[in-house]
Amino acid sequence: MRAFLTSLLLTLSIITSAQTLISGKVTDQKGISIPGANVYIKGTYDGTSSDAEGNFALNTDNTGKQILVIQSIGYKSVENNINCAGQPLTSNVSLSESINLLTAVTITAGAMEASDEKKAVVLKPIDIVTTSGAMGDITAAFLTLPGTSTVGNDGRLFVRGGDASETSIFIDGLQVGNAFGSTASNVPTRTRFSPNLFKGSFFSTGGYSAEFGQALSSALALNTLDMPLRSQGDLSIMSVGGGYTQTLVGKKSALTASANYFNLAPYQGLVKQKFDWEKAPSGWDTEISVKQKWGKAGFIKGYLHTEGGGMTIWQKVAGQDGRGQRFELNNRYSYGNFSFRQAGKNNWFFNGGVAFSHNRDAFNLDYTPIRQINQVVHSKIVAVKDFTPQFALKNGLEWYVKSYSEALLNDHKKRSMTDHQLNHFIEATYYFSNRLIAVAGLRSGYSTLARQYWLDPRFSIAYKMNQGQFSIAAGKFNQLPDEKLRVLQKNLQNTEAIHYILNYFLANNNRTFRAESFYKVYNNLVTYTGTTLDPKNLAETGSGYARGFDFFYRDKKTFKATDFWVTYSFVDSKRKFATYEIKVQPSFAPKHNGSVVIKHFVSALKSQLGTSWSWNSGYTFNNPNLPGEMQGKTKMYSDLSVSWSYLPRPNVILHAACSNVLGRANVFGYKYASQPDETGTFASSSVGQGAKRFVFIGLFITLSKDKNANQLNNL
Amino acid sequence: MKKLFTIIALFLLTVSVTIAQDSPYQKAMKKEIAKVIETDSIPELQQSANAFARIAEMNAKEWQPLYYQALAYTFQGLNRSLTLDKKDEALAKAEELIKKADAISPNNSEIVALQGFIIMGKVNADPSSRGQSMSGQVMATYGKALGIDNKNPRALALMAQMEYGMAQFFGSGSEKACKLAKQSQEIFAGQNKETLKAAMLPTWGKSMAESLLKKCE
Predict the structure, then answer these.
(1) Most buried of the four, A594, A618, A697, B209, by CB within 10 Å?
(2) Is the pTM of this model over 0.80?
(3) Who among A102, A126, A706 is closest to B88 (CB)?
(4) What is the rounded CA–CA span in Å between residue A438 and residue A471?
(5) List of chain A residues whose C-beta atoms are within 8 Å of the C-beta of residue B85
C-alpha cells in the first residue's frame, strides 16, 4: 500500500513538473503595449489574454513542440514555435498592424461620397432626398456641394468650369446615355432616375479612377440598392402628378415595378408662369427592377426604365415682336441595365454588365420636324485580385457603341454616325500602412470612328494624420466631342483635360471639414464659326484652364437636432471653345459660388424643416453691342428654398416645398438679335426663370405589414 | 462489502456520467458563457471573446462559440466609453463572426436576432446619421428572427426596444412595445434556465425586457 502511494505521488509530481509556464509581453512595432490580445497554444484549450500592460502568463500541460499564437484585432497574427519541457518560457511578441479598411486612409481628392457604411463621406444617401430645394432630383442635391455651379436655366451638373457634357453618369458602373430629360433651351431639366433606386453614390469633381473615362471634368457613379427590406406598396399623390410602386421580396430575389405620371398643366393654370407655354410639360415613366442573390456573395441585377414626355413652348426672339419661335418636343427614352458581381476563390472579385440607352427626340422648330436619336451600349467586365491585404489590382475591359442620327423629315435629309470604342483599364492600389495609400491607374482606349488610340495615366495618394488627412490626385482625361459635332465631322479627335488636385479632409465627431484646390488644363477643344445650331469650319484648336479652391463644412453637433452644411467654391476659368476666338470666362462658370443647407427636426411637430440657399456671383454673357467677347455679367444669382416634411404616422409623409421664396428675379444671361436694328444696336431679351417660385406638395403613403415603413427615400 | 461495491460502482458511474456529459468543449463553454453575460467591463469582454475564439478554433462545426464570441464583441460595441471607430471595429468583428455562425446553423432565430442586435449597435453608435437609413434594417432583421421562432424572448425584447424608440420618436403610444416586452418577460419566466445552460443555449436579455416593462408602467 505504501509503495502504491509513493508511486502515485511520483506520478503526480511528474505531471506537475510537466506544466510549462509561458510568459511575455505583447506590443506593437513601436513598443506600445497591446492589451486584450489572445495568446494560446494552437490546437489546445490552453490560452489567455494579455492584461492592460500587454503582459501575459500561461500554464500548459502540453509538452514538446507547440505553436504559440498571438492575435489582436487590427494586427497581423503571429505564430511562434515553442518547446514545452517544464521550464518557464519567455516569449515577447511585437505585432505589426494589419490594414483595416474600416478606418484606413481613403482617397478623398476630388471625391465626394454618399454612403451609410464608409467614413470619409460628405453626404448620407438620405441627404439626397431630404435636401431642401432639390425637389427629389439627384443632381440638384449635388449642386449644394463644393466644386459645382448652379446654372438655373439648364439644371444639369456643371463642375469646375466644365460644361454639362463633361460629367458622365454611371449606374452600377455602367454609363447612362441622356441621363437628363430632354428639354427646350433655357428650360431647366432634371435627372430621369428616382433617388430611391440608389443606396449610395460617388461624385467626383476631378482626378477620378481609371475605371471611368470619356468625361473631362466629373464622374457621378450611382449604386443601386441590393435587396429591398420588405414587400410594400408606395403610393404618391403630388401637386404635379402621382405614381405607384410595388415591391415584392422573396428569400433570394426581389421585384420592383413602378409607374408614374406628371403633368404641369394644372399647376401652371393656378400659378402665373413667365414662360409662354402652349402645352405644359407632361410625361410618364415605368420601371421594372429585378434582383437575385447569386451564391453567398454574388448578385445579379436587372433594371429597365422607359418613359415618354413632351412640351410645347414659345420663346421670344430678341428684336422681334410676337410670340417668337415655337418649339414642340416629343421624347421617348429607354434605359436597360444588367449587372452582376461575384466573389471567386483566392481573393478574386468580378463584376460587370451591359447597359443600353435609347433616346429619341422628335421636335418641331417653327413647325419644321426634326428627329434626333442617340444610342449608347456599354459593356464592361472587371476583375479585382487582392494579392495581399495591402495590394490589390483591378483590371477591366469595356466596349462602347455610340450612335447618333439626326433627320430633317420634310427634306428627307439624314445624317448619322456610329462609333465603337474599346477600353482597357488597370489600377493598382497599395496601402503602405493604415495611414498611407497610393493608387496608380492607366486607361487606354481606341475609337473606330476617330481612328484614334489614347492613353490616360491617373495617380493619387493619401496620407492620414492624427487630425484629418491630405490627398493629392492627378491625371489625364480624354473625351470625344459631342455627337452633334461628330456627326458633322467624323474624324474629330479627343478633347483633353489634365487635373491636379490637393485635398484636406477632416471628419470628427459629427463635424466634417473639406478643403480642396485644383488646377485643370484643357486642350483640343472644338471650335467653330456660325452658331451652336449650325456650326461651320469645325477645328480642334481650343484650349483653356480652370483653377480655384473650395471649402465644405458640415456640422450635426453644434445645434441640437440640426444638421447644416456650408460650401464655398471659387473658380477662375477661361477657355477658347465653340464660337469664341479668344479665351473667355464661359457663361456656366460663375467665379464665386456658395450654398447653405439646414435641416432641423422638430419632434413636437413630427416634422423635418429644411432650407437651402444657393448663390453665385453672376453669369457672363456675350454682348454684341460692345467690343470683345463675353464682356457682360449678370447680377448675382440667389435662391432661398424651404421645405417641410410632416410625418403624422410612420408610414405617411406630407411634404411641401417652395423654391425661391423671396421671389428674386434671377437672370441667367441675355439673348441678342442676330442683326442690329436701325439705330445700330442689337436688341436683347433676358433669360430668366420659368416662374418666380415653384411650389410642390406631395403625399406619400407606404402600405406594408410593417407599419413603420415609410417613403423618406422618395421625397 | 456489497454495499461498499455498490457505492464504488455508483461513484464510478457518476464520475463517468459527469465526464460523458461535460466534454472539455462543454466545460470551457459553460465557464465562459457564465462570464460573458455577467460583465460590462471591456477587458473582461475581450477575455471572453478571446476564450470563445480559442474554443471556436477547436470546434469548427459548432455555432455557439462563434455566437458568444460575436456577443462579446457586440457588448463591447455598445459600450459608451469607446470612440466611434472602436465601436465600429468591435461591431464589424461581431458581424463577421455571426455571419460564420449563420453559415454553420442557417435559419437560427438566435443568430438572426443577434445580427439585428449588431445593426442596432451600429445605429446606437451614430444615431443622427445612421438612424434614418438603418432602423428599418434592424426592424426587418428582428422580424426575420421572430418569423423563424416567435417565442424567442431576446428577439421579442429587442423588437420591443426598437418599437419603444419608434413610438417615442413619433410621439405615438407605446402599447405595442410594451406588449412585446410583456410577452418576452413571460417567456423568460417560463423557461428553465438550467436546461438551457446545460445545452449552452442563450439565456441573456431578461433584464432588457424587465427594464422596458418598468418604463411602460
Answers:
(1) B209
(2) yes
(3) A102
(4) 10
(5) 102-103
